[in-house]
Amino acid sequence: GTTIGILGGGQLGRMLVLAGTNLGYRFVTLDPAPDSPCGQVSQQIRAAYDDEHAARKLAGRCEVITYEFENVDAGVAALLEQKSSVPQGSGLLYTTQHRLREKRAIEAAGVPVAPYREISSATDMVQAVAELGVPCVLKTAVGGYDGKGQAVIRQPEEATVAYEQLAASGTELVLEQFIRFRCEISVIVARSTNGEAKAFPPAENIHVNNILHTSIVPARVPDSVQEEARRLALAVAESMGAVGLLAVEMFVAEDGQLYVNELAPRPHNSGHYTMEGCATSQFEQHIRAICGLPLGSTKLLTPVVMVNVLGEHLEDVVRRFAQPDAEAERLDVVPKLHLYGKNEAKPGRKMGHINLLCQDAEQALEWIEQTNIWGDK
Ligand code: ATP
Ligand code: MG
Ligand code: MG
């Protein structure tokens, strides 16, 4: 059978391994951690992600290589493409590693992004804040996640301080107009090596402290907005020639207009609902896409709410799942727990998630409320 290599051994890799193993594939993962979530379910090469010797070893053992994060070292990506097959290609990584390149690629697909400016100096910054208006948000072009590497500017006077703070990181900066959104949604698209493409139903995403907390499906926006969101996400994937999964985060503005916020060329936290919610999970779909199998159905089987289990929630969650859950029955929700096999339950660390299958999202949200996993919202 075919062996698939994964750069990165976190939970996204683990869920790829679990889905792909069911399809008959074998896996080798590359990760420096002795107790990575993937280590329990696949063979593992223990080395740093930018270790070219280890990358060569991985390439030697696998017919197909993929990754579970976008900040893959360019040298390693080139080496893997040369020594093995990386169906997603290094171009997709190159584009999505950098917010400016990413925005240009989205615009090239004819898809709207929030008005933005490239910022290379304090003078640029003052001028751009005047042009875009406040509030606006300054972001490092490279390496940000969970809202790290960002500063919101609410008053023009804050421009210089924000610039100096983020310029210290040494990467390029981009200033975006702040979109007063009705909600945030995401669409996960899969595009296969033979060009077939399918979009999953949009998820409505709620963040707490800049970390994704809950995804609600179907998103609570009109059908026409959902259809438009899928159309835009497919247009971006098509235009970029993406292969594998592409997660497309969007803002739904007050007037219903959609703006793409950012992309991720991999399984996405907001797509975990597909594991029980859809006919095919995002993980199975990614494996299908990179291996050239026909894509699976993205049909939604039931309304579903996904909630992340962070380190600070773990104890309450484990206790709740160890007992009969009369509330779940009363609310007519079916909670499905997915833990990632991480040892240390640090606050803010993603330890697992729960997919709540339901008739009505409100009841799933009530179950979440009661289980004490709403953090300090
Ligand atoms: P992720 O963990 O999703 O990769 P990130 O650090 O890359 O996060 P973004 O997704 O760009 O950051 O921004 C984080 C959150 O900040 C968004 O989900 C949104 O809530 C808010 N935000 C970012 N940019 C804007 C904007 N231009 N207008 C309004 N809100 C914004
Ligand atoms: Mg991001
Ligand atoms: Mg984001």
From TrEMBL:
It is an enzyme of class 6 (ligase). Pathway: Purine metabolism; IMP biosynthesis via de novo pathway; 5-amino-1-(5-phospho-D-ribosyl)imidazole-4-carboxylate from 5-amino-1-(5-phospho-D-ribosyl)imidazole (N5-CAIR route): step 1/2. Residues 103-291 form the ATP-grasp domain. The keyword ATP-binding applies. Its EC number is 6.3.4.18. It comes from the Bacteria. It holds the Pfam family PurK_C. It catalyses: 5-amino-1-(5-phospho-beta-D-ribosyl)imidazole + hydrogencarbonate + ATP = 5-carboxyamino-1-(5-phospho-D-ribosyl)imidazole + ADP + phosphate + 2 H(+). GO terms for molecular function: 5-(carboxyamino)imidazole ribonucleotide synthase activity. ATP binds at residues 99, 139, 144-150, 176-179, 184, 207, 261-262. PANTHER family: PHOSPHORIBOSYLAMINOIMIDAZOLE CARBOXYLASE, PURINE BIOSYNTHESIS PROTEIN 6/7, PUR6/7. Belongs to the PurK/PurT family. Homodimer. NCBIfam families: PRK06019.1-1, PRK06019.1-2, PRK06019.1-5, purK. This is N5-carboxyaminoimidazole ribonucleotide synthase. It comes from Paenibacillus farraposensis.
